[in-house]
Every structure is written in structure tokens, then in C-alpha cells.
Specification:
7-stranded parallel beta sheet; Rossmann fold; alpha/beta
Length: 264
């Protein structure tokens, strides 16, 4: 069989993998024979990993609890994966957070610092240590989770959007720095995802408009041409494409995976 679209036997790290989009990414990769290291701040990641191993025993998945804003913890995460499997083919820097900030003039410094620590520094550290390993291998793919909020400003999301814009620019910079080593680096930009983080947005918007949670969801779905939320499997499909010869010529791109919601 050709390896043009085959990911079986590859090794991936997925951060933010306890639930939502990250768990969906890890599950989908495992279903295709990828050995997955699932990392998250939540202890729930161990239960999620157990579920993955039970469904896909050929994938030698294991889990790690860590805070991606802790540089040494991310360094050890990558080193542990390489020690166990001998390589790292895919780094999916997906961990992220959102916190209510209000308008710019209402935002507290401690909130800015935490959002930037997780959403930017956490992804930066993942890129840093994955890049060091992939340079040695002269192969690999790094995929960062960006956002359409990082492309165009939205009211009440200046800090979150800025953190994702920083991820976008860093992704493009790294893609040029590491291209000579045959490593591609891209960012996926989901729109409205079926995740715990997004449900927080929905609840806040519903309250502001004086409507129910379900009414707000339907209002959002009207704006998505494919009329559904995004799932981890949607991002995983793009990750697998980028991690095989079929997508190896793609680098430095901000790829929309959003059901047609946004074209910027």
C-alpha cells in the first residue's frame, strides 16, 4: 500500500486532549493507527486515554497531566514521547483557554497574562521542543490550533483574539525557519466548535441577548453554511493530510476548518 495518505504507526502528541476538540483529535488519530500521547491540565485526560485504548488497542496511547504554560513540563512531554516511541511525527498544539474579559478597558492584567501563557506560550513551547526533535529526524509536522478570532477582531475577545493572532504569526515564522529540515508547520482555524470552551461563549451571548442557550445555538448554526458545529474529527482530518506525503507541500498556512463560516 502506498504511504501517500497512510498515518499508521506514526507518533503524535495532542495537547488539550481531555475533552472536546482535543479528545476528538486524539480519538480519530488513534482510529487510524497513530500512537497518541494525550496531554491536558485536567486529570480527566487519564479516563479519556483509557477510552481511546479500549476502542483502539493497536494505538499505544498514554496520558500526561501538565500545564502547557510550564516550559519544563512541555519539554519533558516531548522527551517522554520520544523515549517511548523513538520519534515524534505529529505535534498537535491544541490546548487553549478563554476567560471572560469584557471590553479592553475592563480587562485585568492577570487575565491577560493567563490567557497569553496558555494560548501563546503553551503553543510556543510545544513548537520549540517538537522542532528540536524534528530537526534531528529531518521529518515531522507541527499543527497549531489557531482561530478565526485571531484573524479578525471581535468585541469582548481582544485578549483571546490577540493570543491566537500571535499563534498565527509564530506559525508562519517557524514554518520558514524549519523548512530546510523537511518539517511543515501550519495552523488550523476552527470557527464554532462543539466544545466546552465554545459553550461558554454561547451561554454568555444568550444571556446578553435575553434568549435561551438552545435558541442561541440555533442562531449560530444559521450562520454556518454546513449548518453544524465543528468536531475534533474535522481537525484530525486536516492533521492527517498535513502529516502525510499528500500534504507535505503545505506549510506556513492558516487553514480554515469552519464549515464555511469565515473566508478570511
Amino acid at each position: 500500500m502506498s504511504d501517500f495518505r497512510d498515518v499508521k504507526g506514526k507518533v503524535a502528541i495532542v495537547t488539550g486532549a481531555a475533552r472536546g476538540i482535543g479528545k476528538g483529535i486524539a480519538e480519530t488519530l488513534a482510529s487510524e493507527g497513530v500512537h497518541v500521547v494525550m496531554a491536558d491540565l485536567l486529570d480527566l485526560v487519564h479516563e479519556s486515554c483509557k477510552e481511546v485504548n479500549e476502542k483502539y488497542p493497536e494505538s499505544k496511547a498514554y496520558s500526561v497531566v501538565l500545564d502547557v504554560s510550564d516550559e519544563n513540563a512541555v519539554k519533558e512531554l516531548v522527551a517522554g514521547a520520544v523515549k517511548k516511541f523513538g520519534k515524534l511525527d505529529i505535534m498537535a498544539n491544541n490546548a487553549g483557554m478563554h476567560a471572560p474579559t469584557g471590553n479592553v478597558w475592563e480587562t485585568e492584567e492577570k487575565t491577560i497574562d493567563r490567557i497569553m501563557a496558555v494560548n501563546f506560550k503553551g503553543i510556543f513551547f510545544g513548537c520549540k521542543y517538537a522542532a528540536q526533535q524534528m530537526i534531528k529526524q529531518k521529518s515531522g509536522t507541527i499543527v497549531n490550533t489557531g482561530s478565526f478570532f485571531g484573524k479578525v477582531g471581535h468585541p469582548g475577545s481582544a485578549t483571546y483574539g490577540a493570543s491566537k493572532a500571535a499563534v498565527h504569526t509564530m506559525t508562519q515564522s517557524l514554518s520558514q525557519e524549519i523548512a530546510e529540515y523537511k518539517v511543515n508547520v501550519n495552523a488550523l482555524c476552527p470557527g464554532l466548535a462543539a466544545s466546552e470552551m465554545h459553550w461558554g461563549f454561547v451561554e454568555a451571548d444568550a444571556k446578553a441577548l435575553g434568549i435561551t442557550f438552545d435558541e442561541m445555538k440555533e442562531k449560530e448554526l444559521e450562520d454556518i453554511p454546513l449548518h453544524r458545529y465543528g468536531y475534533g474529527k474535522d481537525l484530525a482530518g486536516a492533521i492527517m493530510w498535513l502529516a502525510t506525503p499528500s500534504g507535505e507541500y503545505i506549510t506556513g498556512q492558516l487553514i480554515n476548518v469552519n464549515g464555511g463560516l469565515d473566508f478570511t
